[in-house]
Design goal:
Elements (H helix, E strand, L loop, with lengths): L9 H22 L5 H14 L13 H8 L3 E9 L8 E10 L5 E4 L1 H4 L3 E6 L5 E10 L4 E6 L10 E2 L10 E6 L7 E12 L12 E4 L11 E4 L3 E10 L6 E5 H14 L9 E6 L1 H7 L6 E7 L4 H4 L7 E5 L2 E5 L3 E5 L2 E2 L3 H10 L5 E8 L2 E8 L17 E2 L8 E4 L2
Parallel strand pairs: 7-12, 12-22
Antiparallel strand pairs: 1-2, 1-4, 2-3, 3-6, 4-5, 5-6, 8-9, 8-11, 9-10, 10-13, 11-12, 12-13, 14-15, 14-23, 15-18, 16-17, 18-19, 18-20, 20-21
């Protein structure tokens, strides 16, 4: 929740920032029970450091045409091409998308699926100038990427990054991008939902997204979703197929968190255990009425992962119960480093605590017998399932999978 202000009257600037600090403290107290206290502590540090370099919040009631005229120069058109070396004909395919400028040294934020693994990336600015772009970093899991372009500073119009943690359903939003190559297209809608967890594929990472009814189409990917103040609160990323006006954006606070890693290291570094499955808590065990222990039921292990190398087993028996799919027969992890994993919150807390290089001691049951294993966690590589087919992020409407989790950590 960084607040910008460049009013020359320093006293007024500090008053604005201190007022925002009070808001953050209130939010911190509200979310402390949910485990977000560390995030808001970081925000407090950022705010204190930003008092001397802040800009006044723009008018949030300006007419949409005026808002578009002010914000659209920061939105860029991105094109790239891919070469398939295994084809004899039609080996080259082109990709188009959107992005937005975020810094005076030419950083452009966009989706990973727009640029990752592609060649000849070029960026066209609002004034028509085209420049070659260098991919600094990308993360296919979070679908965030950063480019750098070298153009004169007068051509760089910066987008203002807002705060997506305070969004409410019903707030007006605007999407600006290049759908189907139609440059600088504006669509208008509202926030239809927040913290949307989409149906997972076996190798995806659950990510709370912003749902909007502002029209998002191929080519909008990577463009900004902005609020009525003209601040970017999301990166347009996905659409739900076979539906109308159901699109999704990555909350901008998530992009802010990984931006330093993408710029400095070219990737987001995360630990790798390599299992996916479901948490079997007492309620679910009673519902299934099967001889199971509570814990994390391993359904699959990722090839080459520490879990696979340690001999942990996934399921072999697919069963559908009340429209929910299970893969039984795999190991059930009951504890990690002595901590019980018998409910989803504990499991999530465990995964978030893992770091590269950690040694993890797992207690699991296999065929009614208790066993233990120790794993050392390396950095997780990019896996084939992380990259969407045809570099287009669409979501097939599936049933929501209760208690399903994927452990990339």
């Amino acid at each position: 929740m960084t607040v910008y202000c460049h009013d020359v009257r320093i006293g007024m600037c500090e008053a604005v920032c201190l007022n925002q600090l009070r808001k953050i403290v209130t939010l911190r107290q509200r979310y402390r029970m949910k485990g977000y206290s560390g995030v808001f502590s970081i925000l407090l540090v950022v705010m204190v450091g930003a008092i001397s370099d802040v800009r006044a919040r723009p008018d949030c009631s300006e007419a949409i045409p005026d808002l578009f005229q002010r914000v659209s120069p920061s939105v860029v058109f991105i094109s790239a091409f891919a070469i398939d070396p295994f084809k004899l004909t039609e080996r080259v395919s082109s990709i188009i998308g959107s992005g937005f400028i975020i810094s005076t040294d030419g950083l452009v934020l966009t989706n990973s699926h727009v640029v990752f693994g592609l060649q000849g990336i070029s960026v066209t600015l609002d004034n028509g100038r085209t420049a070659q772009a260098k991919l600094l970093g990308a993360d296919p899991i979070l679908d965030v990427a950063v480019l750098r372009i070298l153009v004169p500073s007068e051509d760089l119009h910066l987008a203002t990054l807002g705060d997506s943690t305070t969004l409410r359903v019903g707030e007006e939003v605007i999407a600006i991008g290049n759908p189907l190559g139609l440059e600088q297209t504006l669509t208008h809608g509202v926030v239809s939902g927040i913290n949307r967890i989409l149906p997972e594929s076996p190798l995806s990472l659950t990510l709370p997204l912003i749902q909007t009814d502002a029209a998002i189409n191929p080519g909008n990917s990577g463009g900004p979703l902005i609020n009525r103040c003209g601040e970017v609160i999301g990166i347009n990323s996905a659409i739900l197929t076979d539906t109308q006006n159901i699109g999704f954006a990555i909350p901008i606070h998530i992009a802010k968190q990984v931006l330093p890693q993408l710029v400095n290291h070219g990737r987001v570094m995360r630990p790798w255990l390599g299992i996916s499955g479901k948490v079997i808590d007492e309620e679910l065990r009673h519902l299934l009425n099967l001889p199971l222990v509570t814990g994390f039921l391993i359904e699959t292990t990722e090839p080459g992962s520490p879990a696979e190398q340690a001999g942990l087993r996934g399921g072999t028996l697919p069963i559908t119960i009340a429209d929910e799919e299970f893969l039984f027969g795999g190991d059930i992890i009951t504890a990690a480093n002595g901590q019980s994993l018998d409910d989803p919150e504990r499991f999530e807390k465990f995964t978030r605590s893992l770091k590269i290089g950690d040694t993890v001691r797992l207690t699991f049951y296999r065929e009614g017998k208790k066993q233990t294993v120790e794993l050392r966690l390396p950095e997780r590589p990019i896996l084939p399932g992380d990259i969407p087919l045809n570099n287009r992020r669409t979501v097939i409407p599936l049933r929501k999978l209760r208690h399903h989790m994927v452990l990339h950590r």
